[in-house]
């Protein structure tokens, strides 16, 4: 199974268009959206091309390929625009030998882990900082932000392919970080 991850879109239509273009080219089975899809939030400046209604339309056109979780900037009003569920605070995806625990990152994060077994993967967003590493007995994976990157990093998205979690620059798909997950 090949998965693509995007987080912290914050209503940016150009970022959404780039994410969807990468998704189409990637051959991924699912696009995992890690929250903060439409609203820019009170602490963020408006991202380039801020157009939440158009972002909702673009994602709705491929709703059957999306798994999403709720971010701290997402609300019931946002759900009214979207044709796929976004109100769950977390989801789980079972791989052959381990579990991906999918969340935005404001409730569960590296400093407050959910119950995870050895070699499970915490997939989160929220910080806008890319992370791909093993910490003690679990893996941490944050694809960064596609619209408001922080820490001097490029806008980025993530992939899971053949047991490798990788983070790619949105503008050129160059690899920013990666980690091989082993059962």
UniProtKB/TrEMBL annotation:
Keywords: Hydrolase, Metal-binding
Keyword Magnesium among UniProt keywords: no
PANTHER family: VACUOLAR SORTING PROTEIN VPS29
Listed InterPro entries: Calcineurin-like_PHP_lpxH, Metallo-depent_PP-like, MPP_YfcE, PdiEstase_YfcE_CS, Phosphodiesterase_MJ0936/Vps29
Protein name as it appears in the record: Phosphoesterase
Family from the record: Belongs to the metallophosphoesterase superfamily. YfcE family.
Cofactors named for this entry: a divalent metal cation
Species this chain originates from: Buttiauxella warmboldiae
Keyword Glycoprotein attributed: no
Gene Ontology molecular function: any one: metal ion binding
First-tier enzyme category under EC: hydrolase
Enzyme Commission (EC) number: 3.1.4.-
Source species, domain of life: Bacteria
Record domain Calcineurin-like phosphoesterase: where: 1-160
């Amino acid at each position: 199974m090949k998965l693509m991850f995007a987080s912290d879109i914050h209503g940016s239509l150009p970022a959404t268009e780039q994410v969807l273009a990468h998704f189409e080219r990637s051959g991924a089975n699912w696009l995992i959206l890690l929250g903060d899809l439409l609203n820019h939030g009170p602490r963020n400046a408006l991202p380039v091309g801020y157009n939440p209604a158009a972002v909702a339309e673009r994602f709705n056109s491929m709703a059957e390929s999306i798994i999403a979780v709720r971010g701290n900037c997402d609300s019931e009003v946002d759900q009214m625009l979207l044709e796929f569920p976004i109100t769950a605070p977390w989801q789980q995806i079972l791989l052959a030998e381990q579990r991906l625990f999918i969340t935005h990152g404001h409730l569960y994060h590296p400093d407050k882990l959910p119950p995870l077994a050895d070699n499970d993967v915490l997939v989160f967003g929220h910080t806008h900082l890319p992370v791909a590493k093993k910490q003690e007995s679990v893996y941490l994976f944050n694809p960064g932000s596609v619209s408001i990157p922080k820490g001097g990093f490029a806008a980025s998205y993530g992939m899971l392919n053949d047991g490798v979690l990788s983070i790619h620059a949105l503008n050129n798909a160059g690899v920013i970080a990666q980690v091989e997950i082993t059962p």
